[in-house]
Amino acid sequence: MGPVSEPSSSAATRLRILDAAECLFMQHGFEATGLRLVTAKAKANLAAVNYHFGGKDELFRAMLARRLDPLNEQRIALLEKHQRAHGSASCEIVLSAMLIPALTIARNPRHGGKDFLRLLGRAYVDPSPVLRHFLSERYAPMVARFKDAFGRALPQLGKQELTWRLHFMLGALAYTLAGTDAWKLIAALNPGKAGNDALLLRRLEPFLIAGLKAPLPDLGDERPSAPTPAGKVKSFNVNAARKAA
Questions:
Q1: What burial letters (b/e) apply to 4-37, b meaning 16+ CB within 10 Å?
Q2: How far apart are CA 142 and CA 70, in angstroms?
Q3: Fold annotation for 64-244
Q4: With 50 as the cut, is the pLDDT of residue 4 above it?
Q5: How confident is the model over 211-222, as a mean pLDDT?
Q6: Is the domain defined by 1-54 classed in CATH 1.10.10.60?
Q7: pTM of the model
Q8: Fewer Cβ neighbours under 10 Å: the N or C end of the chain?
Q9: pLDDT tens digits, residue range 163-189?
Q10: Distance CA 196, CA 198 (A)
Q11: What are the extents of the domains in the chain?
């Protein structure tokens, strides 16, 4: 075997830097992961980071894009497949189009393997303005497609109510994936299945569906844009509760 060519060596260095940034980001988040930590783990230098990425912000954008771009492409493709086959998609099918590609990629070591779901969750909950702007800008078309699909599946919800429910749904999903508590719970209740991501999402999916389909709350003066008279639930009356106590 001949000597490694310069392009291959350069590509290998770039890959090590991305892998190191990904690992440290999952452990510490964006703000606490400095470039010196990344270069030490990647066995590279700051000049290599600047050469390949231009700086920390660009490095982390590239780190997320290499994982999330394929995920969101698969999500849209699966959603479109369901819509072509059935004309419209139920709430359950739309949610499955979000979750199934994540599981598929998570089982492929070349695309992050078992740590992919944690990376996904961490990306959604990290408070960094840099990452939030990047995610909201880059994936706005995907988000709009799924919001439209959920809206068609849940016509009883107004736009405002749908936005809130999707916000709560993504929050529950991100918290579950980003932390380790859920994996520990699985290990405690189902010994030998600590890494069973499919089991985790099977438990989470009906919970999310129930939240999306829940009866509209009574919001008093804040009326939903498309109220449904039947099936409303009364909101919790704090003052009445205090008097009762």
A1: eeeeeeeeebbebbbebbbbbbbeebbeebebeb
A2: 12
A3: Tetracycline Repressor; domain 2 (1.10.357)
A4: no
A5: 84
A6: yes
A7: 0.76
A8: N
A9: 999 999 988 888 877 765 554 555 555
A10: 5
A11: 1-54, 64-244
